[in-house]
């Protein structure tokens, strides 16, 4: 093993708690840690899954080809694990999520959508016969699917999609058409050249009537030759800010026929004669989107942990400037401004992990209820998934960017792996529901609840709104005070937005116009509501830990307090405006923040070490466990194709004649 950097050695000695204990706690137990490590070994130590050349130096086409090569090996290996009964769904979660997956395929996986949306849609929207027909083929990868919903003209407003599926009772088929350029499907991952099937979301017409959007299983390419089917126009959409190997595609239809039974009919049906049978809720068709929003919150925690590990280790190794005259240059982690860039994101990754796991449980409960026809908890789940996805991805992207800046110039190198992590994180802000739009969905729910609080005590995520407006507690240095103040802020913002909508309606405006004019406040209200949830869950989780050592409990309490204080300080204006917080209290919060940064400082490296992220997963010259930053940066530079020859041919072609002309 390479020699460990001296600074990191010292940092590790300072740590006040047992890092293995925290690793096990985060994984859900020692067994889970061992299982994860063995899975990591299984994938990361396979030479077939390594790239000879860093992906940044490949052409667009080569990137895609390499991604397909690796994806096939990756999923074959997952199948091997499944067949051996090892790991279960965790294998898929880790490969598709923010850690293992992004280590092996830095720029995204072109087959992700098959597992994350194609199969879940068939499972959630297909009836018994359809599941029997398609699930086995999909699980064994006899077919590869994607999820084609978004069009060139519409991503958010899915009721406005233009692709049509018109039922023809004579042949018992649907005829698919893309009547306009804007009706072309645009964006689906893997659609360009990877998938041969897709769930296509289209407007269903039968007996001369449109019944709105529905999901259909559609074959796109010949299963043998992979040529596009007749009537299908398909291709890739081109280069993007990041995720350049996910093969996002476009798709158009020209009188393309599919059997009636390819309409997913668990919820809505079309009978052979063309009769339309409606489901109890039109929103059941949106189920896959909820599922993905829920799993994305876990990804936020993963990306944040990765970025914060890189930046924190680098900050311990990097020395810069003079803090005091004639003293050695300090580690940059000793600058308090640097601590302020790092430690809140360490704390945030815990907050997101804990909320993601609550959301996952709520999701499973509610989907279980949906199976038995109970729909009453769906709106609360939808509202919570929307705001957690929006706040989580926004904080994650902003956090990764802050952490990149915290690494100075070297953070700008792709070898730091922070730029591509940012590419992955910022994409999450847009896909699976653009963040502002999702916050407005949560606001819609909150306003409804505010207007009718009758059953509010039965709704765990919003019941605090019943009396939060009157919390008015005087400042105390406690998480419980911050939580109560944030709840008051959220309630006050919802109340005010509601009042402004009503005022505008009273002035004669249509409700929709009043809503739009109030929408900045509505978004802020949903954001505040979400932040109270995140803090509440973090607080509950830490307080519920019974069997952990006092040393670890102390560290987790520091992180919880830092998360709370950091959130409160970011919302200073709101606290002053909506609670009885005064200037002196803000000063006290600031001092508390500085005290917490100092308390966390000796444990910072220990905490990020506890995330137990292998070097291959970090993929960063700045963040490796040994801290040999400069050696690794130098070694990475040697991989540049330009460094493979002392003189590049452009010298003879352009530079030399140019230099001569200037003589
Ligand atoms: C196998 C293991 C796998 C593990 C994986 C782990 C790793 C994960 C890795 C992740 C990688 C992911 C890659 C994914 C790539 C991105 C894919 C996409 O973007 S795909 C494309 C994603 N595209 C998008 O996300 C599009 C975003 N747009 C939309 O979702 C919708 O059009 C809308 C919600 C904005 C409006 O819809 P509209 O119809 O106009 O609705 P209105 O506003 O008029 O409200 C009417 C009523 O409906 C209600 N309601 C609404 N939604 C839901 C719901 N879901 N439910 C329930 N209810 C819902 C609403 O509350 C309201 O109720 P009420 O007040 O009347 O009672
Ligand atoms: C990397 C990536 C992968 C993707 N993968 C897939 C995929 O696999 N399958 C698929 O079907 N789609 C996919 N998408 C598409 C994605 O789901 C959409 O881009 C997303 O839903 C946003 O829709 P839009 O692009 O139409 O944005 P728009 O809705 O046009 O948003 C543009 C702006 O308008 C604002 N806006 C829109 N509506 C409202 C409103 N009602 N109120 C206030 N403001 C509004 C938004 O806030 C935003 O600021 C992917 C996108 C990306 C970036």
TrEMBL record:
Pathway assigned to this chain's UniProt record: Lipid metabolism; peroxisomal fatty acid beta-oxidation
An individual GO BP term: fatty acid beta-oxidation using acyl-CoA oxidase
Keyword flag Lipid metabolism: yes
Keywords: FAD, Fatty acid metabolism, Flavoprotein, Lipid metabolism, Oxidoreductase, Peroxisome
Highest taxon above the source species: Eukaryota
Pfam family, one: ACOX_C_alpha1
Subcellular location: Peroxisome
GO molecular function: acyl-CoA oxidase activity; FAD binding; fatty acid binding
Co-factor(s): FAD
Active site per the UniProt annotation: 432
Record-annotated Acyl-CoA oxidase C-terminal domain positions: 481-660
GO cellular component: peroxisome
Residues reported to bind FAD: 150, 189
SUPFAM superfamilies: Acyl-CoA dehydrogenase C-terminal domain-like, Acyl-CoA dehydrogenase NM domain-like
Residue ranges occupied by any Acyl-CoA oxidase C-alpha1 domain in the UniProt entry: 286-447
Residues of the Acyl-coenzyme A oxidase N-terminal domain: 18-144
Protein family: Belongs to the acyl-CoA oxidase family.
Name this polypeptide is given: Acyl-coenzyme A oxidase
């Amino acid at each position: 093993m390479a020699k460990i950097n001296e600074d990191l050695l010292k940092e590790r000695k300072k740590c006040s708690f047992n890092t293995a204990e925290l690793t096990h706690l985060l994984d859900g137990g020692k067994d889970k840690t061992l299982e994860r490590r063995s899975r990591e070994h299984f994938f990361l130590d396979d030479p077939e899954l390594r790239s000879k050349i860093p992906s940044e130096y490949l052409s667009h086409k080569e990137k895609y080809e390499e991604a397909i090569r690796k994806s096939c090996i990756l999923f074959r290996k997952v199948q091997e694990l499944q067949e051996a009964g090892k790991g279960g769904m965790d294998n898929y979660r880790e490969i598709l999520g923010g850690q293992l997956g992004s280590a092996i395929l830095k720029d995204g996986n072109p087959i992700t959508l098959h597992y994350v949306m194609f199969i879940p849609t068939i499972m959630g929207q297909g009836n018994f016969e359809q599941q029997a027909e398609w699930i086995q083929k999909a699980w064994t990868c006899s077919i590869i699917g994607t999820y084609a919903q978004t069009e060139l003209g519409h991503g958010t407003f899915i009721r406005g999609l233009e692709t049509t599926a018109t039922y023809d009772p004579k042949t018992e088929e649907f005829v698919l058409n893309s009547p306009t350029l804007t009706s072309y499907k645009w964006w689906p991952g893997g659609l360009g050249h990877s998938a041969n099937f897709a769930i296509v979301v289209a407007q269903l017409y039968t007996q001369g009537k449109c019944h709105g959007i529905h999901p259909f299983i559609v074959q796109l390419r010949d299963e043998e030759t992979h040529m596009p089917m007749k009537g299908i126009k398909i291709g890739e959409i081109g280069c993007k800010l990041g995720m350049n190997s996910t093969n996002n595609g476009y798709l158009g239809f020209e009188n393309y026929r599919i059997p009636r039974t390819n309409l997913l009919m668990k919820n809505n049906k079309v009978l052979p004669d063309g009769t339309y049978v409606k489901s109890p809720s039109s929103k059941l068709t949106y189920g896959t989107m909820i599922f993905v929003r829920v799993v994305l919150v876990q990804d936020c925690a993963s990306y944040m942990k990765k970025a914060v590990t890189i930046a924190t280790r680098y900050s311990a190794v990097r020395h810069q400037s003079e803090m005091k005259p004639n003293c050695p240059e300090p580690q940059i982690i000793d600058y308090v401004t640097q601590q302020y860039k790092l430690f809140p994101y360490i704390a945030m990754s815990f907050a997101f992990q804990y909320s993601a796991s609550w959301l996952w449980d709520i999701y499973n409960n509610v989907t279980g209820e949906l199976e038995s026809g109970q729909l009453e908890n769906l709106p609360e789940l939808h509202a919570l998934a929307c705001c957690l996805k929006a706040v989580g991805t926004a904080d994650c992207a902003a956090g990764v960017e802050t952490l990149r800046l915290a690494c100075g110039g070297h953070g700008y190198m792709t070898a730091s792996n922070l730029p591509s992590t940012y590419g992955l994180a910022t994409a999450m802000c847009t896909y699976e529901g653009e963040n502002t739009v999702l916050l407005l969905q949560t606001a819609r729910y909150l306003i409804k609840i505010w207007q009718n609080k009758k059953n509010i005590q039965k709704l765990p995520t919003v019941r605090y709104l019943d009396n939060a407006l009157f919390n008015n507690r005087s400042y105390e240095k406690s998480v419980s005070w911050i939580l109560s103040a944030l709840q008051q802020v959220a309630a006050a913002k919802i109340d005010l937005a509601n009042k402004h909508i009503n005022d505008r309606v009273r002035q004669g405006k249509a409700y929709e116009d009043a809503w739009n004019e109030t929408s900045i406040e509505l978004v802020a209200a949903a954001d505040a509501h979400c932040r109270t949830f995140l803090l509440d869950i973090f607080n509950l989780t830490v307080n519920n830990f019974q069997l952990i050592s006092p040393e670890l409990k102390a560290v987790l309490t520091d992180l919880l307090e830092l998360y709370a204080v950091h959130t409160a300080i970011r919302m200073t204006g709101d606290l002053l405006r909506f609670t009885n917080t005064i200037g002196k209290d803000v000063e006290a919060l600031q001092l508390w923040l500085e005290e917490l940064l100092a308390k966390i400082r000796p444990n910072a490296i220990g905490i990020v070490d506890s995330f137990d992220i292998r070097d291959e997963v970090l993929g960063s010259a700045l963040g490796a466990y040994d801290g040999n930053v400069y050696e690794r940066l130098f070694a990475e530079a040697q991989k540049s194709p330009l460094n493979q020859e002392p003189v590049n041919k452009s010298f003879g072609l352009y530079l030399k004649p140019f230099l001569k002309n200037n003589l």
